[in-house]
């Protein structure tokens, strides 16, 4: 029965000898969080859906678009929409399922530093964002090779990749932020989808706000990104607008959510 | 090994844990007893850093929980066996724990074997587990890191009688090898059999603590229940010795320890057919000590969500 024998032999001292135990390394936490994404049926369905829908939408585009439009850049651009919808849900679930399934009790007893756990979850979600990006690249390349326009790879630009990936990762962070701040799956998902739409409606209907929209409304500020997939990059002003809206809609909610988790009583 | 020092936790106007102090020694099983909602779980949650204390401190082996590196290797925790993802298999739940703690996969198999979960059961998803299986899995999870301290909240909940006995033996053996065990329960009998030390808590306050003997010592004067072939002769013999005897059922209740009653019967030549200790047991003590905190007949205490602190009942344990 050595399996249950305590690590320390009986001793009169009341202290715990922790000198031989290093803290849990951050990368180990990341690998555990990565595993949590795909070790449930819900997680596997979501991942499968992301890959399948990306492939499906590219196939539809392949048949629907005119031959000259079947460029690598356009294929990538078209995959941004479904991935932008589904990857954040992955991030939301990674945070909120700990509370809805109450596994946070176990997670935080094994790693009391909640900041480290949130960090590991963020890295894990971003890793999946990068993987989805790579998958989109592969499918787009195949589509372009099979039936793309002549010179379908001509519009390939590193900047384009960077913008696409950057947008993807920002959206995932947004999902994580709403997950952290609400700690409730349905509420976080609804907020993630409804809030930007509501904001867009307000900014487009209230004429006094229209000029401010690029600086305050996330989807207005992100629009040039989508448009740029076909060609030109962003202006300095557009980058600045992307920055302010990301601060308002992503960074600040993320920080507030982080603080909420640090203070929350884990039930 | 576990030291709770003047711990208080309030929720608005409600005090869940009120100035609680106690110590759990290595090599001993400490039972944490109290009716539902007495503050046991809150105390244990503060121990592992899930709930911040309002006042006071808890240390494990001299360290605050968050100061323990890789705490799963030192402190085994089972607070709620149901707090696991319903969609994960039992094996996957242990694997996540083992990976976090940096343990080999073989440890998962060892723990599954230890708690008698078969391979087929380990492959089932948590939502298909019975409460007893969840408890076994939870105990396996707590033991994964080979800890020297165990903190278990209601671990026997949902276990069948054989399972309860298995767990009792497991915890006894664990403490005998030098481990520190704190287990909570609202069932006295369960704790009485395994705990070396007992802490009785009611409405957030400790009402009594000590080993079984010292607890019983404060439970009142000696008494016996006796039945004999000639009760009248026995009463006379007892009264001659100065003991009061009153009829109780077919026999007598005597204000003396069984040994005195036996001696009186021997001297009087009365044949006894039954002689038992009539002193109140731990259960009576438990009910009496926590009387003001029981839900029955005490609507104010019926819910933890009470905003107003209920007027404090005289704690009979305080003067005992």
UniProtKB/TrEMBL annotation, chain A:
Alphabetical keyword list: Membrane, Transmembrane, Transmembrane helix
Residue spans crossing the bilayer: 45-65, 71-95, 123-148, 160-181, 188-209, 239-259
The keyword Glycosyltransferase belongs to this UniProt entry's keyword annotation: no
UniProt keyword annotation of Transmembrane helix present: yes
Name of the protein in its database record: ABC transporter permease
UniProtKB/TrEMBL annotation, chain B:
Residue ranges constituting the ABC transporter domain according to the UniProt record: 2-228
Keywords annotated in UniProt: ATP-binding, Nucleotide-binding, Transport
DNA-binding found in the keyword field: no
Gene Ontology molecular function, alphabetical: ATP binding
Start and end residues of each stretch annotated as Disordered: 294-320
Record family assignment: Belongs to the ABC transporter superfamily.
Protein name: ATP-binding cassette domain-containing protein
Annotated organism of origin: Nocardioides abyssi
Upper lineage: Bacteria, Bacillati, Actinomycetota, Actinomycetes, Propionibacteriales
């Amino acid at each position: 029965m050595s399996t249950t024998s305590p690590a320390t032999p009986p001793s009169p001292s009341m202290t715990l000898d922790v000198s031989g135990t290093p803290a849990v390394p951050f990368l180990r936490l990341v690998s555990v969080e990565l595993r949590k994404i795909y070790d449930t049926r819900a997680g596997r369905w979501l991942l499968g859906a992301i890959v399948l829908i990306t492939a499906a939408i590219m196939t539809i585009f392949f048949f629907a678009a005119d031959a000259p439009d079947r460029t690598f850049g356009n294929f990538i651009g078209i995959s941004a929409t479904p991935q932008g919808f589904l990857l954040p849900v992955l991030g939301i679930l990674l945070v909120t399922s700990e509370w809805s399934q109450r596994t946070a009790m176990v997670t935080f007893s094994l790693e009391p530093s909640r900041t480290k756990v949130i960090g590991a979850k963020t890295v894990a979600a971003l890793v999946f964002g990068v993987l989805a990006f790579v998958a989109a690249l592969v499918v787009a390349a195949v589509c372009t090779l099979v039936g793309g326009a002549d010179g379908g790879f001509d519009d390939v630009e590193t900047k384009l990749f960077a913008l696409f990936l950057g947008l993807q990762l920002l959206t995932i962070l947004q999902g994580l932020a709403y997950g952290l701040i609400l700690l409730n799956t349905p509420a976080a998902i609804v907020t993630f989808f409804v809030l930007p739409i509501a904001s867009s409606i307000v900014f487009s209907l209230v004429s006094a706000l229209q000029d401010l929209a690029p600086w305050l409304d996330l989807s207005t500020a992100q629009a040039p990104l989508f448009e740029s997939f076909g060609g030109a990059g962003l202006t300095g002003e557009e980058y600045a607008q992307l920055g302010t809206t990301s601060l308002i809609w992503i960074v600040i909610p993320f920080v507030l959510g982080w603080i909420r988790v640090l203070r929350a009583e884990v039930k | 090994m576990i030291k709770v020092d003047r711990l208080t936790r309030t929720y608005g106007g409600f005090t869940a844990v009120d100035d609680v102090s106690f110590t759990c020694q290595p090599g001993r099983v400490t039972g944490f007893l109290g009716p539902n909602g007495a503050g046991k779980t809150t105390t244990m949650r503060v121990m592992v850093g899930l709930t911040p204390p309002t006042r006071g401190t808890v240390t494990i082996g001299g360290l605050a929980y968050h100061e323990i590196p890789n705490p799963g290797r030192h402190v085994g925790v089972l607070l709620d066996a149901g707090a696991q993802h319903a969609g994960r298999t039992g094996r996957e739940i242990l694997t996540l724990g083992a990976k976090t703690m940096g343990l080999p996969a073989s440890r998962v198999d060892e723990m599954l074997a230890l708690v008698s979960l078969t391979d087929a059961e380990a492959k089932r998803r948590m939502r298909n587990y019975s409460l007893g299986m969840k408890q076994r899995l939870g105990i396996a999870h707590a033991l994964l890191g080979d800890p020297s301290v165990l903190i278990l909240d209601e671990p026997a909940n949902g276990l069948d009688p054989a399972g309860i006995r298995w767990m009792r033996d497991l915890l006894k053996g664990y403490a005998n090898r030098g481990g520190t065990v704190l287990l909570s329960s609202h069932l006295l009998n369960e704790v009485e059999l395994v705990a070396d030390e007992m802490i009785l808590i009611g409405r957030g306050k400790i009402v009594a603590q000590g080993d079984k003997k010292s607890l019983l010592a404060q439970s009142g004067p000696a008494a016996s229940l006796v039945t004999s072939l000639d009760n009248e002769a026995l009463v006379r013999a007892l009264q001659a010795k100065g003991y009061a005897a009153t009829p109780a059922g077919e026999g007598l209740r005597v204000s003396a320890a069984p040994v005195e009653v036996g001696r009186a019967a021997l001297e009087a030549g009365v044949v006894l057919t039954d002689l038992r200790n009539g002193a109140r047991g731990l259960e009576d003590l438990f009910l009496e000590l926590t009387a003001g905190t029981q839900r029955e007949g005490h609507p104010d205490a019926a819910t933890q969500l009470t905003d107003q602190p209920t007027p404090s009942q005289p704690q009979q344990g305080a003067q005992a």
